[in-house]
Design goal:
Number of helices: 3
Radius of gyration: 11 Å
Order of helices and strands: HHH
Shape: globular
Distance between the termini: 16 Å
Strand content: under 5%
Number of strands: 0
Helix content: 55-70%
Structural class: mainly alpha
């Protein structure tokens, strides 16, 4: 989220999103590595795409991007 290159941040977020959608256990690992201020207040269900979308939107906003498009 701190890379100065916007394209690198965008692709990294896209890769994270793809990973947690395709391998749900990766969601908990990702959440553990998020800065405290970005961690969700409660549990995030990897099977609930609305929950995943909300979390990814938080990460996109924190990176300075609001785009939801694939690279």
């Amino acid at each position: 989220m701190e890379d100065p290159n916007d394209q690198v941040r965008r692709k990294a977020i896209y890769a994270l999103s793809s990973e947690i959608r395709n391998y749900p256990p990766a969601l908990q690992v990702m959440v553990q590595h998020l800065p405290m201020e970005l961690r969700p207040g409660g549990a995030v269900n990897a099977g609930d795409m609305d929950d995943v979308d909300k979390l990814m939107d938080v990460i996109r906003r924190a990176s300075g991007k609001n785009e939801t498009q694939a690279p």
